[in-house]
Design a protein that fits this description.
Blueprint (H helix, E strand, L loop, with lengths): L2 E9 L5 H11 L3 E13 L2 E7 L2 H12 L6 E4 L5 H13 L5 E3 L14 H11 L5 E2 L3 H8 L6 H11 L6 E4 L10 E5 L2 E5 L12 H14 L4 H17 L22
Parallel strand pairs: 1-2, 1-4, 4-5, 5-6, 6-7
Antiparallel strand pairs: 2-3, 7-8, 8-9
Helix pairs in contact: 1-7, 2-3, 3-4, 5-6, 7-8
The protein binds adenosine-5'-triphosphate and 4-amino-5-hydroxymethyl-2-methylpyrimidine (HMH).
Catalytic activity: 4-amino-2-methyl-5-(phosphooxymethyl)pyrimidine + ATP = 4-amino-2-methyl-5-(diphosphooxymethyl)pyrimidine + ADP; 4-amino-5-hydroxymethyl-2-methylpyrimidine + ATP = 4-amino-2-methyl-5-(phosphooxymethyl)pyrimidine + ADP + H(+)
Protein name: Hydroxymethylpyrimidine/phosphomethylpyrimidine kinase
InterPro entries: HMP/HMP-P_kinase_dom (IPR004399), PM/HMP-P_kinase-1 (IPR013749), Ribokinase-like (IPR029056)
Length: 263
């Protein structure tokens, strides 16, 4: 069985972070493992607390995983501090990790900052060079490139700037655009657009985590990057279209929508 590791923060309400990743990996029929960077106290209405793990303990989790069950792909989500980013980069190099998806999580869907100021630079310097693909949303891509993204051409311009930090692909997610849900991939000088059906559902807690772990799952299964993104987007759109409505705020997706017939 193919295996996928997620290195991310825990969302106690189950909609984003580690919990969304493990549900996504399981829904793809793969074996999921997790190294937890931080506990968060959050729910569909917001993030109420963050308790980070130590660098030493994160290193220990990664040693346990890589020395025993080697992952076929690795997804990295919320990593809020410089120290933890350094630990991850060192361990990924030490164990020659492959199929690395970096989701540069900066702000939660509900608007809370999930990254300390000094961590942004470390993310770009230490993790981007190791990534097979990085998956910023539009606001994150604006921060990383330093330009405003409004028109189709802006996606390309921003990606080219970000590409100076990575040899991997840059997937700029258009979920925050109003009219459509199209995503843009810049990979080794080539452009790919992935057109999405925009779903009229305000319950989008964890869309970014779900997409990146679905991409990692598809890479682990041996798909090319563009094919992994196409399949991941299809999975995500279905989970959103299912119309689950839990909690008082922006609720989670239904990861098990393809298994409904079993019940
Ligand atoms: N309403 C929607 N309908 C269809 N697809 C959507 C919708 N909202 C987001 N998406 C898709 O979800 C994926 C994740 O994009 P999004 O921009 O929401 O990520 P994100 O902002 O990183 O997520 P998060 O808020 O969890 O951090 C993309 O493929 C995007 O196109
Ligand atoms: C733990 C965690 N990771 C990522 C996000 C991004 O939505 C979140 N809300 N919580």
């Amino acid at each position: 069985m193919k295996t996928v590791l997620t290195i991310a923060g825990s969302d106690c309400s189950g909609g984003a972070g580690i919990q969304a990743d493990l549900k996504t990996i399981a829904a793809h029929g793969l074996y999921g493992m997790s190294a937890i960077t931080a506990l968060t106290a959050q729910n569909t209405t917001g993030v109420y607390g963050i308790s980070e793990t130590t660098g030493e303990f994160l290193a220990s989790q990664l040693d346990c995983i890589f020395q025993d069950i080697y992952p076929d792909a690795v997804k990295i989500g919320m990593v809020s501090s410089r120290e933890l980013i350094h630990v991850i980069a060192e361990k990924l190099k030490e164990y020659k990790a492959k199929n690395i998806v970096v989701d540069p999580v900066m702000v939660s869907t509900s608007g809370s900052r999930l990254l300390k100021d000094d961590a942004e630079e470390a993310l770009e310097e230490c993790l981007f060079p190791l990534a097979d693909v990085i998956t910023p949303n539009v606001p994150e891509a604006e921060v990383l490139s330093g330009i405003k993204i409004r028109e189709r051409e802006d996606f390309c311009q921003a990606a080219k700037i970000i590409a100076q930090k990575t040899a991997g692909g840059i997937l700029i997610k258009g979920g925050h655009q109003i009219e459509d849900a199209n995503d843009y991939l810049y990979l080794k000088g080539e452009e790919h657009w992935f057109s999405g059906r925009r779903v009229n559902n305000p319950n989008t807690h964890g869309t970014g985590c779900t997409l990146s772990s679905a991409i990692a799952s598809n890479l682990a299964a041996g798909n090319s990057l563009p094919e992994s993104i196409r399949k991941a987007k299809e999975y995500l759109t279905g989970a959103l279209e299912d119309g689950l409505n839990l909690g008082a705020g922006s609720g989670p997706l239904n990861h098990m929508y393809r298994l409904k017939d079993l019940l």
